[in-house]
Amino acid sequence: MNITGEVENALKESGVMEGLVLVNAMHITASVFINDNESGLHHDYEKWLERIAPHEPVDQYRHNRTGEDNADAHLKRQVMGREVVVAVTGGELDLGPWESIFYGEFDGRRKKRALIKIIGE
Q1: I want to staple 75 with a disulfide (CB 3.0 to 4.6 A). Which of 7, 19, 53, 83 is the partner?
Q2: Which residues constitute the domain of residue 79?
Q3: pTM given for the model
Q4: Tally of structural domains, the chain
Q5: Confidence band (pLDDT; 50, 70, 90) for 75?
């Protein structure tokens, strides 16, 4: 999910012109990352992550012996990262021309949220 607009809105509301924005996933099976907003790349991420941490068979993971079946989601989050930090200059996010901020969800069972923390002046 592209959350760049939500982060930009929070930055605007804050009034910070120079500083940093931290955005982090508030759930252990979710990720916040920066990359290109291109559907082919998003598809490639899904295929690649499933190859390196496949959901099935669920009994391949020791974590799933606890009664859950989401060990793969924990591993995918580890690869994609928990958070991003973006510089703010002139009241704008310092993102590259093709960069966007994304929230990635790898489990899907619980209501998810992200924290946006803005510091600066």
Answers
A1: 53
A2: 4-120
A3: 0.93
A4: 1
A5: very high
